[in-house]
């Protein structure tokens, strides 16, 4: 039997190879028309691969799915919106596509993704996004309304920008405008803004905030930006280790969860969920973070890049994570994972 370190090394090598090949395997979506696709869902019984029950102070395991599809355009999912009931799903891909569907449950456990449709993201006036650097959608959040009829913000990297897009029963329409970007965005590398959310509470309720995946060149802290009066203003997020931020979601009190990821040759991929207190999410603020979950390849994880927060049937806070398979289906998976946040335990830690 191979040692755990050898297995981690092998998994890391495969993931690195997958990531390096991703630019070549992404399908061309410029002329893609909206259409239904079939998605199969294989339930994940336990978070730990050895079947042990999850033991965590802040989170309880609800269930998960491995999602696959015969469609060549399914994959690369990097941003997620779920309706308030946790069923209506909208996601975007770094190949420049969107999907919509209905998440079905067996009790509290995710069971299937049904009625899935897929289409291409558009440029202003409905023009196609013809260049790969223009299609790299990395984050999605609801701006107003609902996932069935409302507006969303989508953040793109490479050609760094955040646009406002309409949502309706037909999917995601062409952007109506692009936001003023931070001046600091010019200093970002290819790994630009990866996480966005709209604050659900606090003194800046309704404000959009965004996070850089990695610290800017020469810095050790992550940059965050909050849009006040249409203008982005800076705050900072101290790093813990060398994790990159891959998404964010607001809680009802105005605090924020951030999803983080790290890759090392001898550790493989690790993910982390961190809670940022509301008082630091302000211009010139510092958003201190507390780690709620950290997991390695012994758990059911992959390249997790999308995060959403909803309420369950009993009013509990449900955290949903979604992974980007880099369109390397033999090496990586599209996972949907759900947890219940123990609100009372988290509240006890808040000031």
Q: What does this molecule look like?
A:
- The protein is mainly beta and 351 residues long.
- It has a single domain, classed as 5 Propeller (Tachylectin-2, Chain A).
- It has helices at 4-25, 132-135, 343-349, and strands spanning 35-36, 40-44, 59-68, 77-82, 88-93, 97-106, 109-120, 137-145, 150-156, 161-168, 171-172, 177-178, 193-198, 208-212, 222-228, 231-237, 244-250, 256-264, 268-276, 289-295, 304-311, 317-323, 334-341.
- The strands form five sheets. It has a five-stranded antiparallel β-sheet with strand order 1-7-6-5-4, with no helix packed on it. A five-stranded antiparallel β-sheet has the order 2-3-23-22-21, with no helix packed on it.
- The termini are far apart.
- The model is unreliable at 1-14 and 17-24 (pLDDT under 50).
Protein topology:
Elements: H1 4-25, E1 35-36, E2 40-44, E3 59-68, E4 77-82, E5 88-93, E6 97-106, E7 109-120, H2 132-135, E8 137-145, E9 150-156, E10 161-168, E11 171-172, E12 177-178, E13 193-198, E14 208-212, E15 222-228, E16 231-237, E17 244-250, E18 256-264, E19 268-276, E20 289-295, E21 304-311, E22 317-323, E23 334-341, H3 343-349
Antiparallel strand pairs: 1-7, 2-3, 3-23, 4-5, 5-6, 6-7, 8-9, 9-10, 10-11, 10-12, 13-14, 14-15, 15-16, 17-18, 18-19, 19-20, 21-22, 22-23
Strand order of the largest sheet: 1-7-6-5-4
Which percent range describes the beta-strand content? over 45%
Percent range for helical residues? under 10%
Order of helices and strands: HEEEEEEEHEEEEEEEEEEEEEEEEH
How many β strands by DSSP?
23
Kindly state the mean pLDDT as a whole number?
Answer: 91
**Would you identify the CATH architecture?**
5 Propeller
Uncertain segments are 1-14, 17-24
Sheet bearing the most strands, described? Answer: 5 strands, antiparallel
Give the class from helix and strand content and strand pairing: mainly beta
């Amino acid at each position: 039997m191979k040692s755990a370190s050898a297995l981690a090394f092998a998994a890391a090598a495969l993931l690195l190879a997958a990531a390096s090949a991703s630019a070549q395997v992404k399908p061309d979506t410029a002329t893609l028309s909206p259409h239904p696709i079939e998605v199969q869902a294989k339930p994940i019984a336990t978070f730990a691969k050895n079947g042990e029950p999850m033991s965590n102070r802040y989170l309880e395991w609800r269930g998960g799915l491995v999602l696959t599809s015969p469609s060549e355009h399914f994959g690369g999912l990097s941003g997620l919106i779920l309706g308030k009931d946790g069923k209506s799903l909208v996601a975007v891909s770094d190949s420049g596509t969107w999907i919509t569907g209905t998440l079905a449950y067996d009790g509290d456990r995710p069971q299937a993704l049904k009625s899935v449709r897929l289409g291409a993201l558009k440029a202003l006036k409905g023009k196609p996004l013809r260049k790969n650097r223009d299609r790299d959608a990395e984050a999605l959040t609801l701006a107003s309304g609902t996932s069935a009829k409302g507006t969303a913000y989508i953040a793109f990297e490479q050609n760094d920008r955040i646009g406002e897009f309409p949502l309706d029963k037909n999917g995601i329409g062409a952007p109506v405008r692009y936001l003023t970007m931070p001046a600091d965005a010019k200093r970002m590398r290819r790994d630009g803004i990866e996480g966005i959310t709209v604050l659900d509470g606090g003194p800046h309720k309704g404000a959009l905030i965004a996070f850089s995946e990695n610290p800017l060149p020469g810095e050790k802290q992550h940059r965050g930006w909050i849009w006040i009066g249409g203008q982005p203003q800076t705050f900072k997020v101290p790093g813990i280790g060398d994790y990159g931020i891959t998404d964010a979601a607001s809680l009802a009190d105005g605090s924020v969860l951030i999803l983080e990821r790290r890759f090392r040759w001898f550790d493989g991929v690790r993910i982390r969920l961190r809670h940022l207190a509301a008082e630091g999410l302000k211009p010139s603020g510092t958003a201190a973070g507390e780690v709620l979950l950290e997991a390695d390849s012994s758990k059911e994880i992959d390249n997790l890049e999308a995060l959403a927060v909803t309420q369950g049937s009993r009013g509990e806070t449900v955290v949903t994570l979604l992974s980007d398979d880099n369109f390397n289906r033999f090496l990586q998976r599209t996972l949907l994972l759900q947890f219940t946040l123990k609100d009372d335990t988290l509240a006890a830690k808040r000031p």
